[in-house]
Specification:
Chain lengths: 267, 395
C-alpha cells in the first residue's frame, strides 16, 4: 500500500475525512514556506498539495495568483519545489502531491521530473491543464508508477468523461466543487453530493472536494459527503494577510487544527 | 507533407496544438468542436456567413498594386491585401463574424474576448451589437492606455471593457483573465478567441474563418497577373492574419514569410519574436513556441505594437516553422516605424503598426529579388488606432 492509500485507510478506521491543504511552494519565501508547512503537518494535515508556482495560472483566482508571484519573486522554481519536498519528507510521512501547470514540468522534462520527485518523496502529481487526452506525453516518460496521477473532475464533466477520467487517475480524485477559478467562495452541497454519487458509479478511488471551501462549516458539510476536503485559497489568504506577522506559522497551525476538527464528523 | 491536412482529430498540428486546459473547460471546447464540425458545413450557415462577409464586412477586400512603393525600392512588384479596408479596420472582423454567428447557431447569447491592440475587441463588440449579444472584453491595463481610441469604440458599441492588471498588463494577461472568466461562466458564454492560438478547436476555427484572405488573394492575383505570387508576407502576433493569407497557398510553390516583432532588437531581450527566439512550451491551452525562461515561466514580450506584443504564437505556425514550409523573420520597432512612414507618404495608406512590420520586411525582400517577381503583403489593419503612439515618438 502506498502512502496515499494508507492515509485514506487509516482515516476510515478513525472515522475521519482527509484534510488536504494547498500552499504555493516558496510563498512568501522558501524558508518561511518550509516553516509554515511543517506547522501545518504538526497540526494534523492529512495530505499536502504543494503548488508549483507558474507565471500564468489561468485556473487560479487573485489570491493564488498573488501567492505564485510572491514565490516566484523570491526565487522558487521546480527544482526548488522538489528540494523543498525532500526537506518536508524528512519531517513527515503524509502524502505530498505536487500541484502544477504543465509548462514548468515540460520545461524541466517529465522524465527527470518523475525521477527527482519520486526520489524527493513526493507521492503524486496533479497537473491542472493536462487533461487525460494530452496526458500520455507526460506519463509515458515516467519510468514507473510511484507517482499517483491525481485527476480533476469538474461540475461540467459529463458522465462519459467521468469514466474516462477515473480510469486514467490514481491515488484519489479531485472534484472541483464549482465552475470558476480557485478562491471563489460558497459551496452547494446538494450539487456536490449528486456529483459524488455519479462518480462513485465508476470508481472506488477516494473523492476529495475543493474550490470554494473556506469555513469550518463548509469543511463539516463536505466531510459528510466526500472522502476529503481540499483547502487552498483560505490558507493563502491568511499568509497574505500576515506576511509581516511573526506569528504566521502559529496562525496557520491554529487554522489547520480547526479544519481538522471539522473533518472528524463521524459520530 | 500535406500541409493542409492539419490539425488531426485531437487538434494536433504535428507535435503542436492540442488541448491543455483545466477540466472545467474541456467539455466546453469539445462541445464547440462538435458544434463547429456540424454547423460550419450547413449550407444555411454558409449563406448567412457569406452574406455578412460581403455586405457587412465589405469583402472581398482589394488587392492593390503599390506601384510607388515598388518603384521606390527598385525591386519586385509589391501588392497589398487591403484588410485595412474591412469593416472596423482590420482582418479581425472576418473571425468575429464567423465565431459570433457560430455562437448564435449554438444558442449562446453572451460573448467574451481578449484584446491587445483593441482591434479584436472592437471586432467582437461590433458583431455583438449586430447580433444583439452581451459582450465583455478583457484588455491589459497597459493596452487600455496605449490604444485608448479602441477602448472608446468598444464602449460605444455597447461592450464592457474590463481592464486587467495582473502580470504584465498586456495581451497575455488579458487572455489569462478571459480564460478565468470563461471557467466561471462557461455554461452560457461563448469565448471569441482573436487569433489562431488557444486550445483546439480555436486555432483551426480562427484559421478557417481567416482563410478567406488567402482565397481572395489567390483569385485576385491570378486575375491581375495571370500567375501565383512568389512571396507572401504577413505579420505574426498570434498569427491569424498570416495563417489566413498562407493557408490556401500551403500546397503551392509560393514562399511564405511571417514577420514577428523584434521590439528593441532580439538581442536586447525586449521583443516578441516567439518563433525566432522562443522555445517549445505550453501556454493558453496549446503547445507551441513560447517566450519562456529556463524554468518554464513565461517571459514578458515587448513591441511597439500592442497586437504583436504576445509571448506565444499559434501552433500551426510552429509546425510551418519546424517543417520549413514557412520562414519567420522579425522587424524592430524602428524598422516598423520607418515602413509605417514610407507607406503613408508613398501610397497614402496609414497602416497599423502591426502591419508595418510586414511592410518593413516586404520592402527588404523586394530589393533582393528580380523585378518580375510578385510579393504580396497582408496589410492586416489601418493605423488610426496608433496615431497617439506615433505622435509621441515624432514629438
Ligand atoms: C491590425 C492587426 N494586425 C495584426 C495583428 C496580430 O494578430 P494576428 O497575428 O493574429 O494576425 C493584430 C492584433 O491585434 C492587429 O490588430
Amino acid at each position: 500500500m502506498n502512502r496515499i492509500e494508507k492515509t485514506f485507510e487509516n482515516l476510515k478506521i478513525k472515522g475521519e475525512k482527509a484534510l488536504v491543504g494547498f500552499v504555493s511552494a516558496g510563498d512568501p519565501d522558501i524558508y518561511e514556506s518550509f516553516k509554515l508547512i511543517a506547522a501545518m503537518c504538526e497540526a494534523g494535515l492529512d495530505i499536502l498539495e504543494l503548488g508549483v508556482p507558474f507565471s500564468d495560472p489561468t485556473a487560479d483566482g487573485p489570491v493564488i495568483q498573488r501567492s505564485s508571484l510572491r514565490a516566484l519573486k523570491n526565487g522558487i522554481n521546480l527544482k526548488g519545489v522538489i528540494e523543498l519536498t525532500k526537506k518536508i519528507r524528512e519531517k513527515t510521512s503524509i502524502p505530498i502531491i505536487l500541484f502544477s501547470y504543465y509548462n514548468p514540468i515540460l520545461s524541466y522534462s517529465p522524465k527527470a521530473f518523475y525521477y527527482d520527485a519520486v526520489s524527493a518523496g513526493a507521492d503524486g502529481v496533479l497537473v491542472v491543464d493536462l487533461p487525460p487526452e494530452e496526458s500520455d506525453e507526460m506519463t509515458s516518460l515516467f519510468s514507473g508508477n510511484e507517482l499517483s496521477v491525481i485527476r480533476l473532475i469538474a461540475p461540467t464533466t459529463p458522465k462519459d468523461r467521468i469514466s474516462k477520467i477515473t480510469a486514467s487517475g490514481s491515488g484519489f480524485l479531485y472534484l472541483v466543487s464549482k465552475t470558476g477559478v480557485t478562491g471563489s467562495y460558497g459551496i452547494n452541497t446538494l450539487e456536490i453530493s449528486q456529483k459524488i454519487d455519479e462518480i462513485r458509479n465508476f470508481t472506488k478511488l477516494p473523492i476529495c472536494v475543493g474550490f470554494g471551501i473556506s469555513t469550518d462549516n463548509d469543511v463539516k458539510e463536505v466531510s459528510r459527503i466526500a472522502d476529503g476536503v481540499v483547502i487552498g485559497s483560505a490558507f493563502e489568504k491568511l499568509i497574505e494577510e500576515n506576511l509581516n506577522n511573526i506569528d504566521l506559522a502559529s496562525i496557520i497551525k491554529d487554522k489547520v487544527s480547526k479544519y481538522k476538527l471539522a473533518t472528524k464528523i463521524i459520530a | 507533407m500535406e500541409y493542409n491536412k492539419f490539425p488531426d482529430s485531437k487538434g494536433h498540428f504535428g507535435e503542436f496544438g492540442g488541448r491543455y486546459v483545466s477540466e472545467t473547460l474541456m467539455p466546453a471546447i469539445i462541445e464547440l468542436n462538435e458544434a463547429y464540425q456540424k454547423i460550419s458545413v450547413n449550407p444555411d450557415f454558409k449563406i448567412e456567413l457569406n452574406y455578412l462577409l460581403k455586405h457587412y464586412v465589405g469583402r472581398p477586400t482589394p488587392l492593390f498594386h503599390a506601384k510607388r512603393l515598388s518603384e521606390h525600392v527598385k525591386g519586385a512588384s509589391i501588392y497589398l491585401k487591403r484588410e485595412d479596408l474591412a469593416h472596423t479596420g482590420a482582418h479581425k472582423i472576418n473571425n468575429t463574424v464567423g465565431q459570433a454567428l457560430l455562437a448564435k447557431w449554438m444558442g449562446k447569447k453572451k460573448l467574451i474576448a481578449e484584446t491587445g491592440a483593441g482591434q479584436h475587441g472592437v471586432a467582437t463588440a461590433t458583431v455583438a451589437a449586430l447580433f444583439g449579444m452581451e459582450c465583455k472584453v478583457f484588455m491589459g491595463k497597459e493596452d487600455v492606455k496605449r490604444q485608448s481610441p479602441n477602448v472608446l469604440r468598444m464602449k460605444l458599441l455597447g461592450a464592457e471593457v474590463i481592464p486587467v492588471d495582473s502580470g504584465t498588463c498586456t495581451l497575455k494577461d488579458a487572455m489569462n483573465e478571459a480564460m478565468r472568466y470563461w471557467v466561471s461562466a462557461v455554461r452560457d458564454t461563448f469565448y471569441v478567441i482573436g487569433s489562431v492560438a488557444g486550445p483546439h478547436p480555436y486555432p483551426m476555427i480562427v484559421r478557417d474563418f481567416q482563410k478567406i484572405i488567402g482565397i481572395e488573394t489567390k483569385e485576385q492575383i491570378l486575375k491581375i497577373a495571370g500567375k501565383l505570387p512568389d512571396i507572401l508576407i504577413a505579420c505574426v502576433g498570434g498569427g491569424s492574419n498570416a495563417m489566413g493569407l498562407f493557408y490556401p497557398f500551403l500546397e503551392d510553390n509560393v514562399k511564405l514569410i511571417g514577420v514577428e516583432a523584434a521590439g528593441l532588437g532580439i538581442d536586447t531581450g525586449k521583443h516578441a519574436a516567439t518563433l525566432s527566439a522562443g522555445t517549445i512550451g505550453v501556454l493558453h491551452g496549446s503547445k507551441s513556441y513560447v517566450l519562456q525562461d529556463e524554468n518554464g515561466q513565461i517571459k514578458e514580450a515587448h513591441s511597439i505594437s500592442a497586437g504583436l506584443d504576445y509571448p506565444g504564437v499559434g501552433p500551426e505556425h510552429s509546425l510551418l516553422k519546424e517543417s520549413g514550409r514557412a520562414k519567420y523573420v522579425s522587424a524592430t520597432d524602428s524598422e516598423a516605424l520607418s515602413a509605417f512612414k514610407m507607406l503613408c507618404q508613398l501610397e497614402g495608406i496609414i497602416p497599423a503598426l502591426e502591419s508595418a512590420h510586414a511592410i518593413a520586411v516586404g520592402i527588404k525582400k523586394a530589393k533582393d529579388i528580380e523585378k518580375d517577381k510578385i510579393i504580396i503583403i497582408n496589410l492586416s489593419g489601418r493605423g488610426d488606432k496608433d496615431l497617439g503612439i506615433v505622435e509621441n515618438i515624432y514629438n
